[in-house]
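The record is kept unedited without comment:

——
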Amino acid sequence: RAREAGDLDAPIRTGDDIEIRGAGFVPPGAGSPDRLARLVVRIGTVHVHVPLIPVAGGFANPTDTVLTVPVPVEVEPGTVDVQVVTAAGVETDRCSIDVTD
């Protein structure tokens, strides 16, 4: 489902992509595909591997400051915590989102 940029008030549904912004998602030396494949986002109790989107010279997703993941159908509707676990195993602070049917 396509959403307009800045459309933050629209409900988040399973199947939607969510963009997570921050810093330090890809630590130094973790730019190889095998290391990036270790990057995980927890949405509620579901672990989602960050899709790798290759471009010339590296990857468009994930980057050190932005990553995009789909909300899987296994996520139960309601308020759930989102947390990034970097390739180095560092867990970010949790952020709550509301997921609707």
User: Anything to note?
Assistant: The helical segments are 33-36. The CA atoms of residues 8 and 86 lie 25 Å apart. The first helix runs from residue 33 to 36.
